Amino acid sequence: MFLFAAGTSSALAQKRLHNDDTLFFALAEQVTVTATRLPTALRHAPGATDVFSSREIERLPANTVSDVVALAPGATVRDYGGAGALQLASLRGLGAEYTLVLLNGMRLNGAQNALVDLGQLNLRQVDRIEIARGGLAALYGSNALGGVINIVTTRRAAPPALQLGYGAFGWKQGAASAGTQGRAGRVFADVRYEEADNDFSFTPAWNGNALVRRNADVIRRNLSAGGTLLFSEATLSLYTDFSSSRVGTPGAALSATQGRARQNDDAALFSALLDWRLDEARILRVGGSGRIGRQEYRDPSIRISGEELHSIYDARQLSVTASLEQSFPGDHRATVGVEAGIDELESAEIRMVPLRRQAAVFGAGDIRLALAGLPLRIYPSLRYDGIYDSVDEREINAVMPSLGIHAALLPGRLALRARWSRSFSTPTFNQLYWREGGNPALRPEYSTAWETGLVFTGGGILASAEVTAFRHDIDDKIVWAPGQGMYWTPRNVQHVISDGVEAAASLRLLRDVLALRLSGQWMSARKMNTSFPGDATQGKQLVYVPEWSGAAVLSAAPLQSLTLTATARVLGSRFTTESNDAVLPAHAVIDLAASGTAELFGVRHELKLEVRNLLDSAYEVIAFYPMPGRHLRLIFTTSLP
Amino acid sequence: MKRLFIALLTIAFFLPASLFLPACSDDDGGITPTVPVDSPRKIYILNEGSFQRGNASLSLYLPDSNEVFNDVFETAAGRALGDVGNSMTLHDGRLWIVVNNSNRIEVLTTEDHAPIRSIECLPDASPRHIVFDDAGTGYISNLYRNSVSVYDSVTNSFIAEIPVGDNPDGMAIAEGSLFVANSGFGNDNTVSVIDLVTRQVDRTLQVGDYPTAMLHLPGGGIAVLCTGASNNWEDPNDDTPGGLYIIDPATRTVVDSLTLGGHPTRLARDEQGHVYTIDGGITRIHLASKSVTKDFIPGTFYNLFVDVRDGKIYATDAADYVQNGTVEVYSLSGTKENTLSVGVIPSSMVLVE
């Protein structure tokens, strides 16, 4: 369950990044550990992978992981109303339950519903975000049918800093960090407070009169701390995070009376990772992580037998892992490892107290060959997962293979990459054991995925370009359908094929003063089977999957102390019904950020102005969940250099 | 100047992106035929639509010409009907459509379907049904306010709110009283009796678990359908059975009952002494003999309606509850005669003649 952000790879990437301070994007030698589970240069990865570095993230008009993921190729974010609202990632048209989200290697997808709200993950202390698309269960186990989002926190020194933010819709943010480093390592602590009333105006489609969004307020508090202890041949990294979220969830804006539900999320997590270089050829990694979380949902509008709707979920996760990475003569590499973990959920909404035990063995390799004199890399991987649920003593045994290749057609310029993989997703506790409609007979969902692409690494204006074609074929997809009585129940009834093409390019303009990242994708994610004779949903696009979408990030550094970044997200029209007879229109959203820095009396000051939704687009990502119009945010940061 | 140029270029680059977006449209390219307004007999079918999809709709079936017209409300009003069309009532030549999750009641004429009024219900009401007394005053059951609100259709305002039992659902008016089924989602088993003069509950009747639907019987009685409670969902053996209870509105007492078993929903009747309900298929109950015929019409139906003059049973099939459904038309002997293609989750039906 752990993913290792090797210190050596980070150091390598940082060293190369610093070679060119005018570029915001590490266009040439970004390193990914997500795509193969071995530190690998991004341009050598066998599958479509993108990395957003901290340098790039800092300049974006972005506050949460969700804001960054929305700019990645092949990714869309299902946003239920902007800041404070639920924000779910979708990779390659597949749902959030098929997107595995890792934080320092720790799996954030819980067994309750496998969903991760990216809007709750702020960007402070984030070193980079890696987004690897494709079926990756052979590396990471369940849920990675669409891909993996890996959030890696920084290992760099954190100078004392204070940040204050103020913006529209009552947005206020205060944050402070402090840290120190020496020969023995580093320690840091970071606190953050954010609040907003989010009372923005919108005009619902069912009524021409403007309304104000109510009960969409948010309060979030975070405390994170950690550090790194350096030994002669080893590094011990510790990270802990406490988060508290209080949000209003007004629900779909279907009437002038908006919902009054509230959701509280509290979580504490920790991770520890020992990175031990045994010798020149071997690295041993041992880690552990845990998370305790409580989610509380209360809706005073819904009263059943005089009692308002009130549900509480207490989740507990613990995992340990050990792996050995070995280098061989000829630059071949391999890693083998084991993982073990438990997930437990306690709630009055769930039958009994389900406990899931999981054990896995995995291996992955990087084999370097030459084919007709051209470099060829082969990335095989294999993983076994044994999963045992206590409630009904169910066992799942899954063996997932994957094979990737990277073939240089024109060394240093043009490469062909391809990957084939099998993946699976285990039914969640909600699907299995929800008291009113859970279905303990559910089976895992399985998928076969392949992708192939061309990667161009250039020079001059076109720094890099790539195009990738993919197919994900999912069998036994779980879908909720009417069951006995008034409740719905999930069943393994759907066959879905998601086909698509992703294209991305990075450009450097005006002697590297401008950097441009462009991406676009076409996706066809369709239900292939018929549920009954005359089924009108067969062959139809899945709801909320746009056939086309794109993003652009344009950054300029006209002065050493001034940076300008503009982002554009374009989302094509999306069907809101399974029979494709209702549609949300396409929309474009442009955000701007301008940052200026100055140093006074040995203290560095930065003022960042963000303009969100510059065009004041009136749009919905999810039907009846209005998004805020144009608004401003001002963020002031002062820090010791 | 060069820096200004770069900044402007930065902004200008993105502006054209929005110009190439297709215009907002949800037009499927179809042409909605003109609905004839002078048909002697019309059956309106309210399609609930999927929860939070905002795709409730109104269909119209003309039995004489065997024609179906869909999206009647949207065509006439130029806007969507809303989210979860729960029920509709014919009153004063108008259709009163209760759009549950939009918290509204839409009123339209049955002549040309012109929208008359859109009534915003009380906050968090979750309205289920509306019924009218002889004076034209409307009574709306509010599922989540545990109340009935009183609506003055002349002044277009709410004039009172009457607390009742848990999660009120179906209602019926007779003999100066309003009878309200307190469903409690299975945790209540009462009917509140409201005096229409004092507008207060002056009696509470005990019936079976989970009372939901009410129906006027030819003899003057009121039938109350109780779905029965599921209780612990992990234990099917602790369910309580569905049943039919008869209230005499003159004495305001429960005068008879019949255990049906299972978990029936919906109520309709013919003029041959039968009451129909749904428990998967259609169950037929002969009131006089209390004989129950389960699966009188086998299938999986969502709602039903009986055209007593034509002797037809209209049973809705919601398919998978996300795509358009059908209305299956049967003779009173249970022979299938027709299938009508309508909207998503077809449910409540009303005859206008």
Number of helices of chain A: 5
Q: What percentage of residues of chain B falls in helices of 4 or more residues?
A: under 10%
The major β-sheet of chain A equals: 22 strands, antiparallel, barrel
Beta-strand fraction estimate of chain B:
over 45%
Oligomer: heterodimer
Tell me how many strands of chain B there are: 28
Largest interface summary: A-B, 64 and 59 residues
Q: Approximately what portion of the residues of chain A adopt beta-strand conformation?
A: over 45%
Q: Could you give the count of β-strands of chain A? A: 35
Mean of residue pLDDT of chain B?
A: 89
- Please outline the major beta sheet of chain B: 4 strands, antiparallel
Let me know the average pLDDT of chain A: 91
Output the strand order for the largest sheet of chain B: 3-2-1-28
H/E element order of chain B: HEEEHEEEEEEEEEEEEEEEEEEEEEEEEE
Distance between the termini of chain A: 36 Å
Summarize the structure.
The complex is a heterodimer of chains A (641) and B (353). By secondary structure, chain A is mainly β. Chain A has helices at residues 7-17, 54-59, 65-69, 137-140, 429-433; strands spanning 31-32, 40-41, 49-53, 75-79, 87-91, 99-103, 106-107, 126-133, 147-153, 161-167, 171-182, 185-196, 201-202, 211-212, 218-230, 234-249, 261-277, 282-304, 307-328, 332-346, 355-371, 374-389, 394-410, 414-425, 445-457, 462-482, 488-509, 514-527, 548-559, 562-571, 574-575, 583-584, 587-600, 603-612, 631-639.
Core attributes:
heterodimer; A: 641 residues; mainly beta; 22-stranded antiparallel beta barrel; 5 helices; B: 353 residues; 4-stranded antiparallel beta sheet; 49% strand; disordered N terminus
Describe the protein's architecture and organization:
- The complex is a heterodimer of chains A (641) and B (353).
- The longest helix of chain A is centred in the N-terminal third of the chain and has 11 residues, at 7-17.
- Chain A is built from 5 helices and 35 strands.
- Chain A starts with 6 loop residues before the first helix and ends with a strand.
- Chain A is 5% helix and 58% strand.
- By secondary structure, chain A is mainly beta.
- In chain A, the strands form 6 sheets. Chain A has a 22-stranded antiparallel beta barrel.
- Chain A has helices at 7-17, 54-59, 65-69, 137-140, 429-433, and strands at residues 31-32, 40-41, 49-53, 75-79, 87-91, 99-103, 106-107, 126-133, 147-153, 161-167, 171-182, 185-196, 201-202, 211-212, 218-230, 234-249, 261-277, 282-304, 307-328, 332-346, 355-371, 374-389, 394-410, 414-425, 445-457, 462-482, 488-509, 514-527, 548-559, 562-571, 574-575, 583-584, 587-600, 603-612, 631-639.
- Chain B has 353 residues and is mainly β.
- Chain B is built from 2 helices and 28 strands.
- Chain B starts with a helix and ends with a strand.
- The model of chain B is unreliable at 1-32 (pLDDT under 50).
- Chains A and B meet through strand 18, strand 29, strand 30 and strand 33 of A and helix 1 of B.
